[in-house]
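Good day; I would like, with your permission, to put a structural problem before you. The record follows directly beneath this note:
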Amino acid sequence: MKIIFLGDIVGKTGREAVKKVLPKLKKKFKPDIVIANCENISHGSGASNKTLDEMKDAGINYFTAGNHIFKGVKNGSIWERDDLVRPLNYPSDSRVPGVGFLKMKILGEEILLVSLQGLVFMPEYIESPFRIFKEFLSEHKNKLVVVDFHGEATSEKITFGLAFDGKASAVFGTHTHIQTADERILPGGTAYITDAGMCGSQNSSIGIDFQEIIKHFETGLKFKTEPGEFPAIVCGVLVDIDFSHRKAKKITRIFEVVK
């Protein structure tokens, strides 16, 4: 089974870049499913049904998200969707909308898609992703599980990957928007990358117009979330997983420049 996972899609520039590149990637790699992080899909922060549907039409099947998905007034009824997960380690009560995992059917097999959020350098007060995922695995034994680990610290991400090596089939890091070059199959058979990168403006501050960020660094004042322009990049990974053993066989980094 082949999965394409795309890093954070940032604003209209990211969406347009995905629409240009994804058909070519699907033709080349022939994935069984495409997953993408969508927390910044609407003008660089948050998501809407309109932008999510736009990406569905472009060929993305499921979406993961982190803390930014809760920002702004663009959320609307996105939580009624059956193709979107927010971090599982947020409180699972009526105060926090959405679900932390989804059951996907691929080639007749059930696969669990999980989102988790790190704690290091993150502002939210939430549960430990390590403890929550351990509990999750105890409730879903012998399942093929794919994880988007949304975190700031590289140390926390790699520690999570090693802690659950052989228990999750793949762990894809997101949130920093900067693609790392450490994609590999861990000793226990888990496909891992510290950060899948982003889909957005290349000459920007992680997808946002860098002129706005310069003002912020010079003054300390808040900045407008204004996505940068083209050229853009589309970043992610392709993973090949063996259904019978729930182990990854290969992981290939994706990095495409879009003019």
In short: The CA atoms of residues 41 and 52 lie 8 Å apart. The chain is about 25% helix and 30% strand. Residues 2-258 form a domain with the Purple Acid Phosphatase; chain A, domain 2 fold (CATH 3.60.21.10). The two ends are 31 Å apart (CA to CA).
